[in-house]
Structure formats: structure tokens, C-alpha cells
Amino acid sequence: MPRYDYDLITIGGxxxxxxxxxxxxxxxxxxxxxxxxxxxxxCVNAGCIPKKLFSYAAGFASDFGDAAGYGxxxxxxxxxxKALRIAKDREISRLNGVYAKLLGDAGVQVVEGRAMxxxxxxxxxxxxxxxxxxxLVATGGRAVRPDIPGAELGITSDEAFHLEALxxxxxxxxxxxxxxxxxxxxxxxGVETTLVHRGSRLLRGFxxxxxxxxxxxxxxxxxxxxxxxxxxxxxxxxxxxxxxLASGRELASDLLMFATGRRPNIKGLxxxxxxxxxxxxxxxxxxxxxxxxxxxxxxxxDVIGRVQLTPVALAEGAALARTLFGGQPSTVDYxxxxxxxxxxxxxxxxxxxxxxxxRRFPExxxxxxxxxxxxxxxxxDAGKVFIKLVVDAASDRVLxxxxxGAEAGEIIxxxxxxxxxxxxxxxxxxxIGIHPTTAxxxxxxRG
Length: 447
What we know:
Blueprint: E1 6-11, H1 15-26, E2 31-35, H2 41-46, H3 48-69, H4 81-106, E3 109-112, E4 115-119, E5 122-125, E6 128-137, E7 141-143, H5 157-160, E8 169-173, H6 177-188, E9 192-197, H7 208-220, E10 224-227, E11 231-237, E12 240-245, E13 250-253, E14 255-258, E15 262-264, E16 297-299, H8 310-325, E17 339-341, E18 347-351, H9 354-360, E19 364-371, H10 376-379, E20 385-392, E21 398-404, H11 408-420, H12 425-429
């Protein structure tokens, strides 16, 4: 008779937890997955998928304008927020079902409810005790609000996907992915949009040129950027909100959205009582094989606070399953992870920003280009594309590739493959470009 009910109990049905469970089951493990909400986690329900669907919707505003330059007569387009929301909900519901089927087909038992870790090998769900040789914490992250008076009057991105109606005015607080993406979404959908950020530059950790170019594009599209500012308090005034900034400036808005970061979602899990070490920011501390201070308890995804991206959580989940049940000790290489920001225009990046490259390499060469894309020559759009390569002068190896422009993520994905193969600038230069495309500019950059 088996010593435990399962070989693996996964807590959390998001990207990392689902991938780990499916791979473990495919390797012969007996797996249960515990989830208290809809399957798919943040990405499917309140992140990547609905956000990009909203981004597509906002992008049509400029598409209609571009069409006129190409001879299309587009009489007064009208946007229906409710129709978008219903269509989005229908797609998310479909994906929830897809996740359930994938787990069922793999032989993973889904247990509905909130899990609490009772010891190194057991969890409790709705009064029921379940045991396993290994426990996996994959509970993701949660949006946070700043600790200021009236913060409860604002929303986070979680609630933004379910607004009953679009506001006339929106005030966003933050300077990262979520803040700039929702600034583009609201602005593109016709909302008067203001973005407040406590730093002097958006997108901390990204290449500075990229941040500066995107800031200029957001302003050109009508987004008001207030940098070196932060909210001090919020109050309701009639049907609107009055937001007082630390500088004393007051702003009125119909909607206040905080995009001020996410923290590991560990509240009520019983981690510390079970002996699992947790960092000051709430991240579960794990080694390079995703094992916590308690050898039978593991963690992957946003809850470990490393790289908070869906594909990274997927890779971590698969690596853990192979380590535990496939006889293949595995980890994830965190170098050259490509990423995209679905602002308008898009941002795509992989590898080192220029300032980081200069800290790590004695001599760095930088190649830049800013140009008007072919499509804009007839549409009249004033926006430009910006691309940049950062190169190690000694080895000629490309260290970073960065872009602001349409479909930046699609283009950077291909460059990430080249960079993981150690591509040099000379190899970029000898590659024949596809003409006329934006992507070809990366192989025609010259000093």
C-alpha cells in the first residue's frame, strides 16, 4: 500500500502548477492539483490573455485612422465596451475548460478548494487531509495597493477586466508592464488617461532608450505622464475621485487604478508553520531545483519572485517535474529571456540593456535606428519604430536586442533564438533581410 495518497500535490492551477502536474503525470506520477478559483491562474483569468485581447481592441482606433490613407472609407466607428467584455469572458471560459480537459486527459485529479499545508507531506482542503511525497506551491502573485488613505477607492488590474462601463477619465499609478499597457488600452478606447509614476523614467530595468521612446509615444497619443509623482491620499468627491499627490497637486478622475506591483500569494498557506523559508517580500525561497528549506516542499512561478512571466513559470514547472519523476535533474536558464509589453506601440526586448552590458563588459558597441515604417507613409501616422542592438566589442556577440514598434514581440522572439545560439553582429550583418519589413532593419544596422 502506498505510503502517501499521491506522489505530488500541486497547490495552484496557474501556468506553472498545471505544467508541472501534467508533466509529472505523463512520467507516471500520481498527481492531485488543488485550486480555489478558475483554472489558468493570473495569465488566463486576469493577465496575459484578457489584457492582450483588450490591447487588440484599443489598437483598432489607430487602424481605422490608418485605413483612410489607403483609400478605405470608415464612417464613424463606434465602440461597445459591453460587447468586448462579453466576448472576452466567453474566451476565458473556453480556456478554463481547455485547462480542465488537459489535466483530466493527463490523469491529474483536480480538487476544488483552498489548501493549507499541515506538515511536510500533507495539506488540508475543506476539512479533508491529503498527503503526498512532494508538495508544490504554485500559487502565483496578487496585485497590491499602496498604503495610503483611501486606497480602497481604487482598483487593480484584476478588477479592470470586469468594469461595468468605461470611465471618461482614468488615473493609473505605476510605471511597469501593467501600467503602460493599461494606459494604452484606456487611451486607445477613448478614455482621458493620466499615468502617475514615482520614478523619473518608466519601465525600470528595461533599456533606457526603450523607456524614453515609449514615453514619447504615449505622450504623442494623448496620455498625460506625471513622473516623479506619487499619490498621497484618495477621497470621493461627488461621483468622482480626488487624488492628492505627494507634491500637493490634486487630480480628479472617474477611475483610479493601481498598477504598483504584485506580491507572492502565500497568505493562509501555512508555509512558515511548516518550516518553509519566506523572503521579506513574501517569495518562497528555493534552490536551483525549486526545492524549499523543507526538502519535500517545492515552489515555481511568480510565488518564488524570480522572473514573473508565464513562459518562465511553464519552464520551471516542467523542470521540476523532470527532476522529481523523470530522473533528469533540471533547471531553467534565466539568461536571454525575451519579453514583450503590449503597449501602443509594442515593446520587445531580449538580453542585456545597454547600462547593464556596460557594467559587465569592458567595451560595448551600440547600434540604433529610428525610422518611419512603410505603412505610415500613406497612413500619415507620425509614430516611429526604434530598434537597438547591444554588442560585446571583444567577442562581437550580440548581448541585447530591443525594439519599440508594431509586432515587436513577434520580431524579438526570433532574435532570441539567434542570441541563445551565441549569434554575433557579423552573423546578423551577413543575414539576408526580408524586404520590405521592419525586422530586416536588425540585419542592416551599421555603426
